[in-house]
Amino acid sequence: MLLLRSPGHLPHRQGVDRAVSRGLPAGRRCQWQAVGSSPMGTETESGTDTGGATGTETGGATGTGSGPAAGPGTGAGTGTGAVTVPPRPPTSLSPSRAADFMRCPLLYRLRVIDRLPEKPSEAAAKGTVVHAVLERLFDAPAAERTPARATGMVEAEWERLLAARPELGALFQAAEPGALATWLDSARSLVERWFALEDPTRLEPAEREMYVETVLESGLTLRGYVDRLDVAPATGDLRVVDYKTGKAPRPEYADEPLFQMKFYALVLWRLRGIVPRRLQLVYLGSGDVLTYDPTPGDLLNTERKLLALWRAISEATATGDWRPRRTPLCGWCDHQALCPEFGGTPPPYPLVRMAEAAEAVGQNGAV
Ligand code: SF4
Questions:
Q1: Which residues, at least 6 apart from 204, have a Cβ–Cβ distance to it below 8 Å?
Q2: How much is the average pLDDT of 138-154?
Q3: Could you tell which of 110, 113, 333 is best to mutate to test the pocket of ligand 1, judged by most ligand atoms within 8 Å of the CB?
Q4: What is the per-residue pLDDT across 225-270, written as a single tens digit (0 to 9) for each?
Q5: Residue 95 lies inside a defined structural domain of this protein
Q6: What is the pLDDT of residues 97-133, one digit of tens each?
Q7: pLDDT reading at 46 higher than 90
Q8: SS3 3
Q9: Which residue, of 171, 201, 231, is where some domain finishes?
Q10: Which of 152, 166, 200, 226 has a CA that sits 20 to 30 A from residue 135's CA?
């Protein structure tokens, strides 16, 4: 059951959710409360359908992150133009990298195996800053989680990010005067819009920026970061929440973000033994909330799809056959110069060379 609500045009609500949904009985009410002994809050959702998804999220610049094991491309990249870590075969799958392979196998190879750096991106950096604000705002007492406090955190989070990744300073060094101020304002707008979609004074997340990892029976390791996990104490129901700084996709393009959410739901099911009750994507760029209530059958299908994906990745890893797949998203790809679709030549496949080297070592009698 897919639901989309678009309250972004409403003034900031305090304690009132005007939700629209697709296919959900009107007036349905869900309560999500605190965990343990924390102060509890409730959120009410009710539904009538208005549709209204607008556009697509721009190329991977949401800053949701996929963990240190996911390779480059999870954020703004290093921008150094040099390979900073040795090539390696993939050992696990994250939602971002699974999406990369489905989008373009060559892109997956260049990010995960070659580990080529990518240029810093204003959009990715903004996503990181906005996610940090939404995460850390919950450190404050519930009554103090106001738009003013949240927007006031944006510049400090940018400074914190810059201290950790000084190369991001290059984003604004050659820019027009005032570009950084404009960029910070746009980050504040995204943060402010969140208050029209959710009410943090009435939420006590169980987890924020939670690293999850599980090994399936097949041996495949799944890993990633969940932006927020809410638990209903009365029922133990789980709600998995992901923030997107882009716009909600049109319904025909909703499969990819939902696949990411089902990936997290599968991991949580394996880790906690219960199927999450609700998956919720919060699109700050357009002011939409997309929700989906998964079933065990959905997640078993997701597991089958991931295993098939992993088989395809393993085969490409062994053969070195990573084919480019041209799509409109190529416009956001940092590797066009190396891509045959754009007249380029990929670097020699490093794992083949490694295998040959290992064979040569074996022939020389080394262990
Ligand atoms: S530019 Fe080439 S490598 Fe990049 S996504 Fe497009 S087809 Fe794949």
A1: 33, 34, 35, 38, 39, 40, 41, 138, 142
A2: 98
A3: 333
A4: 999 999 999 999 999 999 999 999 988 888 889 999 999 999 999 9
A5: yes
A6: 999 999 999 999 999 999 999 998 999 999 999 999 9
A7: no
A8: strand
A9: 201
A10: 166
Helix (H) / strand (E) element for 171: namely helix 170-173
CB 226 within 8 A of CB 242: yes
In a domain, 151, yes or no: yes
Q: Indicate if 246 and 180 belong to the same structural domain.
A: no
Start-to-end C-alpha separation, the chain: 56
- Residue 217 counted as domain residue: no
Question: What DSSP string runs through 213-274?
Answer: EEE-TTS-EEEEEEEEEEE-TTT--EEEEEEESSPPPPGGG-HHHHHHHHHHHHHHHHHHSS
Is the CB of residue 220 below 6 angstroms from any atom belonging to ligand 1? no
Look at ligand 1, atom 5, and give the residue with the nearest C-alpha. Answer: 330
pLDDT grade, residue 366 (50/70/90)? very low
Residue 74 has pLDDT above 50, yes or no: no
CB 236 within 8 A of CB 226: no
SS3 280: strand
What is the sign of the dihedral through the CA atoms of 53, 58, 60 and 62?
A: negative
pTM for this entry = 0.76
Distance 339 CA to ligand 1 centre (A): 6
* Category of 13 on φ-ψ map: left (φ > 0), alpha (ψ -120 to 50) or beta: beta
Please answer whether residues 291 and 285 qualify as being in contact, where contact means their C-beta atoms are separated by less than 8 angstroms: no
Residue 84's domain comprises 68-118+305-363
Ligand 1 atom at minimum distance from 103 CA: 5
